[in-house]
Amino acid sequence: MRYLSRPLATAFALAVLFAGCGGGGSDDEILIGEFGSLTGTTATFGISTRNGIDMAVDEVNARGGVLGKQVRVIVEDDQGRPEEAQTVVTKLIASNRVIAVLGEVASSRTLAAAPVAQQYGVPLITPSSTNPAVTQVGDFIFRTCFIDPFQGLVMAKFANETLGVTRVAVLRDIRNDYSVGLADVFVDNFKRMGGVIVSDQSYSEGDTDFRAQLTTIRASNPQAIFVPGYYTEVGLIARQARELGLNVPLLGGDGWDSPALTEIAGDALNGSYFSNHSSQDDPSPAIQNFIAAYEKRFGAKPDALAGLGYDSAMLLFDAIERAGTTEGPALRDALAVTDNFPGITGQITMDANRNPIKPAVVLQVKDGGISYVETIEP
Ligand code: PHE
């Protein structure tokens, strides 16, 4: 993965710089770091996650805090840039002396920052980065979501069995570790099931004109197009596909999850499907109570990212209580033995590679909204 191999020289130069700045929480508080895209083309990812984390922090503080101390979160905006993610996480750890870091949503950004947390021995929990390489960075890196080998299999099975299509085109974001990894898993599984990938095209995050790739895809006569990207580009791709008379359903993954998806796409995604971590239609009381509380506070229904943000914070607080300390190695060990933690996005048990095994849902874009189709167990 591209960002893993980045030299950490910049990070350590900054660490030396920040080390003189003091920092650390006072004795009666526990300081947590959070980094995410609060601005940029994936801003809703960072904002929803922050909202979920805020709810968890307020809830735990209202019931007396963690180890008898109040929890305080320092939030950094990485603007959706991997280099900036590495810089702000270095600052959070070396200058602010946070005892753990929550973030990022996007795998490329978590991959850029995780080596810093690993090097300092400070646990990092990504709520929602699904690329397998993220937790392979080291034993201080955890996640609260499923991984892409599962998510890609879910969508290949959905295309093959539920939709019954055999000819699928792929349009992947080559600057995005998540998109490339998920596309590969989908392609492998779909072919193994007897399907044909009629065209495999790419774009780069930030692009706004996809007509050349879509014209090539149209010529390959697909029955569906797999687009494992993020919502801003996916919304534009959908519009341009329809303009070109390409009317087959688009298929995607969790990166579609945003309140902005249908604002950008208009009607263009109606009838399209994507996999996700949870559904607003889930009748479980844990999810419905969270949705009601979130809606009351933020004036809109939460996406899956808000729930994952909430779960990652609550999982961390649970581990701190079990460890009885905020010291890095003890906290790492407590996180590693997380067993049946009752998250609102599902039960969380860490496997040996610090990845939870959780179900996925398939959702359909319909009449400007998102509706539940099915749940796929691991
Ligand atoms: N899974 C995506 C990644 O790893 C991020 C994401 C998760 C986006 C959930 C939206 C919802 O990059």
Describe the protein in words.
The protein is an alpha/beta fold and 378 residues long. The protein has 2 domains: 2-146 and 285-358, Rossmann fold (3-Layer(aba) Sandwich); 148-276, Rossmann fold (3-Layer(aba) Sandwich), CATH 3.40.50. 43% of the residues lie in helices and 19% in strands. The chain has 13 helices and 14 strands. It has helices at 9-19, 43-62, 82-94, 107-120, 133-136, 148-162, 177-192, 211-219, 231-243, 261-265, 285-298, 304-323, 328-336, and strands at residues 29-36, 70-77, 101-102, 124-126, 141-143, 167-173, 196-203, 224-226, 250-252, 273-276, 341-343, 346-348, 360-366, 369-376. It has a 7-stranded mixed beta sheet with strand order 7-6-8-9-10-13-14, with helices on both faces. Strands 2-1-3-4-5 form a 5-stranded parallel beta sheet, sandwiched between helices. It has a two-stranded antiparallel sheet with strand order 11-12. Strand 1 (29-36), helix 2 (43-62) and strand 2 form a beta-alpha-beta unit. Helix 2 (43-62) crosses helix 12. The longest helix is centred in the first third of the chain and has 20 residues, at 43-62. The chain is globular. The two termini are 26 Å apart. Bound molecules: phenylalanine. Phenylalanine (PHE) binds next to helix 12.
